[in-house]
Amino acid sequence: MKSWWHKGKDAAPDVVASSDGAAPGAASGGHHAEQVLRRLEWKVIRRLDGLLQGDYRTLLRGAGLDLADLREYQLHDDVRHIDWNVTARMQVPHVRVFTEDREMSAWFLVDLSPSVDFGSGELRKRNVSAEFVAVLARLLTRHGNRVGAMLYGSGVDAVIPTRSGRRHVLHLLHSMQDRVVPAGTGPTRLGDLLGAAANLIKRRSTVFVVSDFISEPGWEKTLAQLAQRHEVVAVRVMDPLELELPDLGLLTLRDAETGEQVVVDTHDAGFRRRFTRIAAQREAELREALVRAGVDALELSTDADLVDAIVRCVDMRKRRSQLAAGGLPPHLRRAA
């Protein structure tokens, strides 16, 4: 399914930041990034602090486990943690208690190709991506974690090394806002971004792939390979108009990535049904590909509440942490 969308204006030329993060117009751009981050801190992060009460720490899982203590075995303990030497010596089953090493970095692989400039409402997919990355980066860096990013436009055109602190989050947000790729640059090759990340990120990390996944095929295998080494979350950014077309009469649609145009009659009910059927098929294929790759998947819509989406992300990561530790959620323990 191509990225055909109705647009009124072409995108602005790409702005490439220098090595110190400065760029033409950086002063005004940096001020705008500060305004956006301040708004997110007041309207989103404060709500998250009240809802999650520290649970967002499960967004990152440490690279290893440190032995903290030994204690007697209790019901529902993971039998894989039994220390058989101590058990034989004490004649009572004992288990090892571990603490998780949280010295870990997070990487954001952000798709900023022309197709993410679409939005049928007040926000474009690009805005949703930037706000999601800014909120998660701020939550993580507030507690000493480091975050980095790789930005994809017409190719992998920026790498932001992992650092912590609010200024670093501002730099990351400013870089995303500044990179605008003009239409007609060719189709997105998401596999190039994933492959570059696999070569660059050596230490085990949590990797958020933020994209609309409108791409040339072949990225699925690279995503699965990336997930073998890292904790990967696929953050799919979408707009309601990508799933169902309203009756708007004649429209001129332009492929955001090739510049090709076509006129369609959305008043034709048969055309709208075919569009919905093709969109539903693509949805099913995309979800199946993410399941096969073994990654967590989160959907962000331009008309949805960002707080709800991040709460879902934290809950998803919490369940994954429990399963990875060999444990069960409390409600399942009671059921067992």
Summed up, what is this model?
40% of the residues lie in helices and 21% in strands.
Topology:
Blueprint: E1 4-5, H1 26-52, E2 64-72, H2 84-90, E3 94-101, E4 105-111, H3 125-141, E5 146-152, E6 156-163, H4 166-178, H5 190-200, E7 206-211, H6 219-229, E8 231-238, E9 250-255, E10 261-265, H7 269-293, E11 296-301, H8 306-324, H9 330-335
Parallel strand pairs: 4-5, 4-7, 7-8, 8-11
Antiparallel strand pairs: 1-9, 2-3, 5-6, 9-10
Helix pairs in contact: 1-3, 1-4, 1-8, 3-4, 5-6, 6-7
Description:
Helix content is 40%, strand content 21%. The protein has helices at residues 26-52, 84-90, 125-141, 166-178, 190-200, 219-229, 269-293, 306-324, 330-335, and strands at residues 4-5, 64-72, 94-101, 105-111, 146-152, 156-163, 206-211, 231-238, 250-255, 261-265, 296-301. It has a six-stranded mixed sheet, with helices on both faces. It has a three-stranded antiparallel sheet with strand order 1-9-10, with no helix packed on it. The two termini are 45 Å apart. The model is unreliable at 1-27, 62-66 and 327-336 (pLDDT under 50).
Question: Main traits of this protein?
Answer:
alpha/beta, Rossmann fold, 9 helices, globular, 3-stranded antiparallel beta sheet, 336 residues, single chain, disordered N terminus
Number of strands: 11
Residue-averaged pLDDT: 81
CATH fold description of the largest domain: Rossmann fold
CATH superfamily of the largest domain: von Willebrand factor, type A domain
pLDDT < 50 stretches: 1-27, 62-66, 327-336
Shape label: globular
How many structural domains in the coordinates?
Answer: 2
> Any idea of the CATH class of the largest domain?
Alpha Beta
**Class derived from helix and strand content:** alpha/beta
Cα end-to-end separation: 45 Å
Task: Give the percentage of residues in beta strands.
Answer: 15-25%
